Amino acid sequence: MNLSIKQFRAFLALCEHRNFTRAAESIFLSQPAFSHLIYSIEKAVGVRLFDRNTKRVELTADGIVFQSIAADMMREFNLGLSRWHDHINNEQFKISIAALPSITVKLLPDYIEYFNQVEPKATFEVKDLPSDYCVSAVTNEAVELGVVGFLPKDPNVESHKIHTEKYFIVFNKNHPWQKNRSLR
After folding, report:
1. Do residues 89 and 49 lie in contact, with contact meaning Cβ atoms separated by under 8 Å?
2. C-beta separation of 103 from 131 below 8 A
3. What angle do CA 93, 96, 102 make, to 5 degrees?
4. pLDDT, tens digit only, all 184 positions of the chain
5. What is the CATH number of domain 92-184?
6. Whose CA is closest to 149, among 98, 112, 111?
7. 67-74 contacts: CB < 8 A, separation 24 or more?
8. Where in the chain does DSSP place strands (E)?
9. Count of CB atoms within 10 A of residue 70's CB?
10. From the CB of residue 40, how many other CB atoms can be counted at a distance below 10 Å?
């Protein structure tokens, strides 16, 4: 199978607009050329990706799976172009991160310092957000990375454990609990 970026763009435009004419206009193609492009994608992948009639265009079950793959491919392609542009122009690149306020103060400075030793052209934009909003910001592509205090169950994100932390209970030395060797 050999699909082009143009085909991926056309497919994603139709996913977004659910209308051949509007999707074709959004990527500056004529409607017949756009229809042919969608047909060529379906032929290349070997399945129908859209159910369509004169009033509606809907993704098939296979189309939903392909949409996720196509979105990932376009994201990677655009990221690669951006990195190449930065390399050619010797520019800094920005990494956006959403994290809990406590993480932005305690953990991120060390990670950012380490990353800047490896990639000195990087700059960082950090947003203080609650964990659920951090995950949403990543899935909605408002930020590139999120640092949260729980393992997300969202199938649209990939997560990796980066830190383990110990917590301690503290109480006054005159408190009755002070006599106990262990607390539950």
Report:
1. no
2. no
3. 135
4. 789 999 999 999 999 999 999 999 999 999 999 999 999 999 999 999 999 988 889 999 999 999 999 999 999 999 898 888 877 776 667 888 999 888 888 888 888 898 888 888 788 889 988 878 888 888 888 888 888 888 788 888 888 888 787 777 777 778 777 776 666 6
5. 3.40.190.10
6. 98
7. 67/11, 67/12, 67/15, 70/8, 70/11, 70/12, 70/15, 71/12, 73/8, 74/5, 74/8, 74/9, 74/12
8. 50-52, 57-59, 93-99, 122-128, 145-147
9. 21
10. 14
Residues contacting residue 17 through CB under 8 Å, at least 6 positions apart:
23, 26
The topology under which CATH files domain 5-83 is: Arc Repressor Mutant, subunit A (1.10.10)
- Which residues make up the CATH 3.40.190.10 domain(s) of the chain? 92-184
Write down the pTM of the prediction.
0.50
